[in-house]
């Protein structure tokens, strides 16, 4: 993150502790993750220690510290999805792409995240690739979708 | 002067709404909430646009929120000029073309995939949408606009009585508003059920130069989406509710703490707030009165515990979202030490209706102690899944069988209250739903998730699922919750692996009770509920795992095997093709073999046998 783009992000804020989470969110939106460099900059700007920032950032599930893949795979494991077989979908992806939740494939194509609920429980189980939600999934449907994405 | 602006705007809004009802050209409504989009509404909208372009038909497309029966999504309503609005279910792009061909080319009302008409006037051969079995027993108060109006058009909200309640409030002393809310019997819809008016009074009576009004839209219970649907379908209802609450407690600043996982809801709120600002409904001197109030959106960063009031406040303050001891309660000392009220989305969305139509309009529904209506997300193994609003006091049987249409297989349990709730067996089907009854049964009302489980669901696995969730979401501040939930998960894992012993059940119970009593906040205090309630009502299932090393529902992976029934298998080779570990072999047209030592129980063969195979059902999972 360059000094200029960091300044652009912080411009809309007052520089109070309450701005920490929103600024972390903005930085992650711009960079895809929270780099050590970005945390150093925030530390200087808010005048709080890097430790404190890491303490807050690691508390929340949203923040990641390694670069994401080009495409984001999210497997919903909310109750409704769990009951309808979400775990099997996660297994399928883990096995096929050889990654665990929180990791990115070696070629940087996909990262994988398990989420607690995407809020479309009536259409469970669901999987999301980037912003597109695939509903009423099965292991086979998922294989088909991954095939199609790999051909892209 | 501002008052006049809104009056003039309401007149024009009503005119606009009337014109939409007596439409000169066709209007097409598409349910495009997150659920509708997930079901494929986006592609349907594209195909409709293309169709209209190609045929040079002038029509208006309106994207509405979720009307409730998610199992019918995507829903598309067609309203021909000066005709009633007719709704079609499970619409695909191809089906949309068929529907429009019928309407536009043949001038005939298509009778396939018909969900019903939405207008007041009836129409021959088309039943009313609201008469269908899923909708008829419902009472729609807070959801009255969802799926009906364009959530991005403030005029639609205004034309249907929107912002009348805040106008009314501004001419009343705050005490009278509080009295109305008290008379309505409204209790907090976030789950705990504390009387809304009493919380407000604590806040108002605390001397302070500043008070805060916070909306808790951090809908974290997995399996619950009532708040998302309300915000996406009717964002102004929530915002008007916030104005009413802020006026009554005397707050000038507010926050909406909303999950970042709900991007569409956030976008709808931002748009609605801009519209309000232009009409003087937000900011300084609202509608020309002495009341000033402004709202900021805070996106939650993914922590379930932030649904707890004090954790939510810590999170807004920029800290780790960890709860603190109460008292002092936030109503006395909350955000930055100032009196703060935190209300749930549904609580706030209900307020405009209570004020506008009077408290009796709300309190006429419900039981002695729990008044009004409650929204639930009805999901799991019921036939008709979706978002519902029912009067308090309705029985679970009515909800599951009349509204939900029952199950395909046999009923086993209903899970209420999310990770803080419990699994109730069939003996509770005739229990009226209210705060007290659900608590007495060992569950809680919670925010409104109702997950129906059938014989294919393993109760022990469910308990493990919820405990794993709360264990991961435990903030780690107090020992009973941090260490206790970890141990509960390990014990449940052991049982699911068939390594449990009889004495483990007593240990589970003892530890669960200790966590309940010793934890600091609601998360820990309720986390053991799934274990305790299932041990109480489904002890036999635990015993099957522990004594017989069997999982009756054939779910727990270490206790099940996949088997091919030779007599049924036609040797079509579909399972051979999908098996990722080459565990299934066999030549075409001969029954296949499944090598158990290679099988990773991924379910692919099971699914393919049911949907693609020639004979089908030849592969079974058994314990």
Structure description:
The complex is a heterodimer of chains A (152) and B (623). Chain A has 152 residues and is of the alpha+beta class. Chain A folds into two domains: 3-59, no CATH class; 71-151, Glutaredoxin (3-Layer(aba) Sandwich). Chain A is built from seven helices and four strands, in the order ααααβααβββα. Chain A has helices at residues 3-10, 20-31, 36-46, 50-59, 79-83, 86-97, 139-151; strands spanning 71-76, 110-115, 127-129, 132-134. In chain A, strands 2-1-3-4 form a four-stranded mixed sheet, covered by helices on one side. The radius of gyration of chain A is 18 Å and the shape is elongated. Chain B is α/β, with parallel strands linked by helices. Chain B has 24 helices and 18 strands. In chain B, strand 7, helix 11 (263-278) and strand 8 (294-300) form a beta-alpha-beta unit. The termini of chain B are far apart. The mean pLDDT of chain B is 94. Chains A and B meet through helix 2, helix 4, helix 5, helix 6 and helix 7 of A and helix 2, strand 10, strand 14, helix 17 and helix 24 of B.
What's the main sheet of chain A like? Answer: 4 strands, mixed
How many helix segments of chain A?
7
Mean residue pLDDT of chain B: 94
Count of separate structural domains of chain B:
5
Largest interface: A-B, 49 and 65 residues
Order of helices and strands of chain A: HHHHEHHEEEH
Main beta sheet strand tally, sense and closure of chain B: 5 strands, mixed
Kindly list the characteristics that best describe this protein.
heterodimer, A: 152 residues, alpha+beta, Glutaredoxin, 2 domains, 4-stranded mixed β-sheet, 4 strands, elongated, B: 623 residues, alpha/beta, Rossmann fold, Ubiquitin-like (UB roll), 5 domains, 5-stranded mixed β-sheet, 40% helix, 14% strand
């Amino acid at each position: 993150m360059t000094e200029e783009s960091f300044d652009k992000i912080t411009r809309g804020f007052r520089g109070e502790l309450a701005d920490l989470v929103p600024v972390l969110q903005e930085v992650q939106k711009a960079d895809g993750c929270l780099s050590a460099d970005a945390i150093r900059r925030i530390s200087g700007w808010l005048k709080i220690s890097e430790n404190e920032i890491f303490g807050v950032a690691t508390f929340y599930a949203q923040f990641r510290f390694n670069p994401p893949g080009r495409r984001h795979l999210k497997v919903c494991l909310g109750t409704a999805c769990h009951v309808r077989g979400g775990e099997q979908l996660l297994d399928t992806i883990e096995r096929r792409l050889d990654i665990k939740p929180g990791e990115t494939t070696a070629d940087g194509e996909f990262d994988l995240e398990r989420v607690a609920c995407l809020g479309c429980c009536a259409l469970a189980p669901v999987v999301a690739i980037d912003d597109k939600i695939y509903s009423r999934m099965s292991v086979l449907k998922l294989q088909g979708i991954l095939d199609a994405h790999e051909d892209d | 002067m501002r008052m006049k602006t809104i009056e003039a705007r309401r007149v024009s809004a009503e005119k606009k709404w009337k014109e939409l009802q007596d439409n000169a050209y066709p209007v097409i409504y598409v349910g495009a909430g997150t659920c509708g989009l997930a079901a494929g509404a986006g592609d349907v909208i594209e195909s409709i646009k293309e169709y209209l372009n190609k045929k040079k038909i002038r029509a208006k497309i309106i994207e509405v929120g979720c009307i409730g029966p998610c199992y019918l999504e995507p829903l598309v309503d067609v309203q021909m000029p000066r005709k009633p609005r007719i709704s079609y279910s499970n619409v695909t792009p191809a089906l949309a073309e068929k529907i429009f061909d019928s309407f536009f080319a043949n001038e005939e009302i298509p009778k396939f995939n018909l969900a019903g008409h939405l207008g007041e006037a009836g129409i021959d051969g088309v039943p009313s949408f609201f008469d269908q079995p899923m909708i008829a027993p419902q009472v729609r108060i807070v959801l009255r606009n969802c799926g009906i109006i364009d959530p991005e058009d403030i005029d639609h909200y205004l034309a249907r009585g929107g912002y009348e309640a805040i106008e009314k409030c501004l001419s009343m002393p705050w005490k009278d508003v509080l009295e109305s809310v008290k008379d309505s019997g409204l209790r907090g819809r976030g789950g705990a059920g504390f009387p809304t008016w009493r919380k407000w009074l604590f806040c108002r009576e605390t001397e302070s130069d500043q008070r805060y009004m916070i909306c808790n839209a951090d809908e974290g219970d997995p399996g619950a989406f009532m708040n998302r649907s309300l915000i996406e379908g009717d964002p102004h209802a929530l915002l008007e509710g916030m104005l009413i609450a802020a006026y009554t407690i005397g707050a000038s600043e507010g926050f909406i703490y909303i999950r970042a996982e709900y991007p569409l809801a956030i976008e709808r709120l931002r748009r609605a707030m801009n519209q309000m600002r232009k009409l003087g409904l937000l900011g300084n001197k609202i509608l020309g009165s002495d009341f000033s109030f402004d709202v900021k959106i805070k996106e939650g960063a993914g922590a379930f515990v932030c649904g707890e009031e004090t954790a939510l406040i810590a999170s807004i303050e920029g800290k780790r979202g960890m709860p603190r001891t109460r008292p002092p309660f936030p109503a006395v000392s909350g955000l930055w030490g100032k009196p703060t009220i935190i209300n749930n989305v549904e609580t706030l969305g209900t307020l405009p209706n209570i004020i506008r139509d009077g408290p009796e309009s709300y309190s006429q529904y419900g039981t002695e102690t729990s008044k009004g209506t409650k929204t639930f997300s009805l999901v799991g193994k019921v036939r008709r899944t979706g978002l519902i609003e029912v009067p308090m006091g309705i029985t679970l049987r009515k909800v599951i069988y009349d509204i939900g249409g029952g199950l395909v297989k046999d009923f086993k349990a209903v899970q209420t209250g999310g990770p803080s709730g419990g699994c109730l067996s069939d003996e509770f089907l005739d229990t009226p739903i209210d705060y007290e009854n659900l608590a007495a049964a060992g569950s809680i009302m919670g925010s409104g998730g109702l997950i129906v489980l059938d014989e294919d669901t393993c109760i022990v696995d469910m308990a493990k699922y919820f405990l794993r969730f709360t264990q991961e979401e435990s903030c780690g501040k107090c020992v009973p919750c941090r260490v206790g939930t970890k141990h509960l998960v390990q014990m449940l894992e052991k049982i699911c692996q068939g390594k449990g012993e009889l004495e483990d059940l007593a240990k589970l119970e003892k530890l669960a009770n200790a966590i309940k009593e010793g934890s600091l906040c609601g998360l820990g205090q309720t986390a053991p509920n799934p274990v305790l309630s299932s041990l109480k009502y489904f002890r036999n299932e635990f015993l099957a795992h522990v004594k017989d090393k069997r999982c009756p529902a054939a779910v727990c992976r270490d206790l099940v095997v996949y088997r091919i029934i030779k007599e049924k298998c036609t040797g079509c080779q579909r399972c051979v093709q999908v098996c990722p570990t080459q565990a299934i072999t066999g030549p075409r047209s001969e029954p296949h073999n499944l090598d158990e030592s290679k099988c990773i129980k991924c379910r692919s063969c099971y699914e393919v046998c049911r949907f693609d195979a020639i004979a089908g059902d030849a592969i079974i999972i058994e314990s």
